[in-house]
Amino acid sequence: MTVDTAAELLAWYDVHRRTLPWRAPAGGGRADPYAVWLSEIMLQQTTVAAVGPYYRAFLARWPRVEALAAERDDALMSAWAGLGYYARARNLLACARMIVRDHDGCFPQDEDALRALPGIGAYTAAAISAIAFDRRAVVVDGNVERVISRLFALQTPLPAARSGIRRLADRLTPDTRPGDFAQAMMDLGSMICTPRRPACPLCPLRAACAAGPAGDAELYPMKAKKAAKPHRHGTAFWVEAAGHVLLVMRPPKGLLGGMRTLPTGPWSEDEPALSGAPIDAGWSLAGRVRHVFTHFSLDLTLACASLPQPVDIVGGTWWPIESIDAAGLPTVFAKAARLQIGDRAPMAGG
Ligand code: ADE
After folding, report:
1. Contact yes or no for 210/140 (Cβ under 8 A)
2. Inter-residue contact 186 to 173 (CB < 8 Å)
3. What distances in angstroms separate CA 12 from CA 83, 194, 198, 248, 347, one per listed residue?
4. Ligand 1 atom with the shortest distance to the CA of 40
């Protein structure tokens, strides 16, 4: 593909681009770097549809980086609940504070300087640099990998193909409108060059594509066979007393670090039964939920007990069940809590 083909893509983008809440209006206006950064962090591993309401709520509550930087950790974690990958929320706050403390509240434009900030890797640095500052940067996400694999009918499977894809993406990226080019590639990947049943006849790049006209687009990108994810079992404990349920705070580092959850024992290959129960009680089992994390899947059994009144438990908080929504439970625990409370209390669909 040549720069002319990049021009074809930009012409298509000018007509067909998605209207997304974090985008500057077509044909003018510069995106706010804070808003671009916020959207890109949320969009890491999360779909555009899921991010929309969170993005709007965050910008309404914290319209500027200074406001976000001044927020309390637990308020931020609660607002993030349901988006998953909670390390992003911790890094979001650390990054906002660093921008205010070390950068006078202004995001740097340069990719290397952006990469030095918490939670910003190669992709996100390139995306912010291109989209917020219109600097030439090579932006490669999953959509771009798919588009390029098909354009060039790349035979090397992922992940080995990544370095070659990056070189090709570099060759394609124009000097003018690199931010629009990056977003045009994303839109092409999500609207036309989709993982399944791509709409090749509508594609602005079909003349240049090695796979589409041959009817082979779905074969790409080729993928190496994946090892199966390990599976684990755990038990979460729902103990209630006088309309309150016992919640604990997880340690700051590690999976779901810093999040408020139900008490839970070890997550292991075998069923841990009642090990790790917060108190001796007459536990009964209320059911089981399944959740898939990045590196393993989990069957979480919910064990329930009730006490006549709350007792002191080190590190525990008795939380009113009717406002369990405000506890910001991560998704797997929200699913488990649902087993017990059914429709007793409203809960955000996190
Ligand atoms: N995914 C990640 N960043 C995006 C963006 N800026 N527009 C659309 N999808 C995206």
Report:
1. no
2. no
3. 32, 16, 16, 51, 42
4. 3
Nearest to 305 by CA among 334, 280, 273, 336: 280
- Coil, strand or helix at 303: strand
Q: How many angstroms does the Cα of residue 39 sit away from the middle of ligand 1?
A: 8
The residue annotated as part of the active site, out of 40, 111, 145, 240, is: 40
Of the residues 32, 43, 191, which should be mutated to test ligand 1's pocket, given the most ligand atoms within 8 Å of the CB? 43
271 noted as active-site residue: no
Total-model pTM: 0.76
Q: Are 289 and 300 in contact (CB under 8 A)?
A: yes
Q: pLDDT digit string (tens) for 174-198?
A: 999 999 999 999 999 999 999 999 9
Give the model's pLDDT for residue 198.
97
Most informative mutation of 22, 39, 42 for ligand 1 (most atoms within 8 A of CB): 39
> Which residue shows structure tokens 């404990």?
237
Residue 118 CB: number of other CB atoms within 10 A?
Answer: 15
> Residues 267-287: pLDDT tens digits?
999 988 999 999 999 999 999
Q: What is the pLDDT of residues 29-45, one digit of tens each?
A: 678 999 999 999 999 98
Res. 135: pLDDT tops 60? yes
Q: Residue 346: what pLDDT?
A: 58
Asked if residue 1 has pLDDT above 90, the reply is no
**What span, in angstroms and rounded, lies between the C-alpha atoms of 267 and 259?**
17
